[in-house]
Amino acid sequence: MSSLKMIIRGKNVEVTEALKEYAELKLGRLNKAPVEEAEIHVILSLLGHQPLHKVEVTLLDGGTVIRAEEVTEDMYTSIDQAAVKLNSKFRRWREKLRTRLKRAEFNDSVQDYQEEEAPEEYFQVERIKGVPIKRKSYTGAITVRTA
After folding, report:
1. CA-to-CA separations, 31 to 36, 55, 77, in angstroms, rounded
2. Would strands 64-72 and 3-11 be described as parallel, antiparallel, or unpaired?
3. Which N-terminal stretch is annotated as signal sequence (predicted)?
């Protein structure tokens, strides 16, 4: 099981316990991440004088950064939509990782197979068969059609 550290902070807005629990609930699904020590940074902010709520979510794992951002008129809706985006991006990244690992395993198995040498007595020539080929001259091989 991976350990997921979640850091939630507010910018121009107070992070209430309800907002914090809601963000942890929605983004906690990523706790199934195949990473050892990942961090999720969540920034909740209120934009200027407009009634717009912005949520920025960043998943950090070593060298991998997956980011989602959403702006709506409701903070809870922004959290929902950012969580959906992050889950989608995370799923694509995980599939890409699985594909790379499968490809690497296949290449390793092919190299192992090629490196193994079969003993010479394993392959014995039973017979050699000749196939007669009818030879044509250049003029017979090239035909020109006229319409």
Report:
1. 10, 19, 21
2. unpaired
3. none
User: What is the value of pTM for the model shown?
Assistant: 0.64
pLDDT digits (tens, 9 = 90+) for 95-124: 888 888 887 776 666 666 555 565 666 667
| Domain ranges (residues) in the chain | 3-115
34-89 pLDDT, tens per residue?
556 788 899 999 888 778 999 999 988 878 888 999 999 989 999 999 999 988 88
Tell which CATH classification among 1.10.260.40, 3.30.160.100, 3.90.660.10, 3.40.640.10 matches the domain 3-115: 3.30.160.100
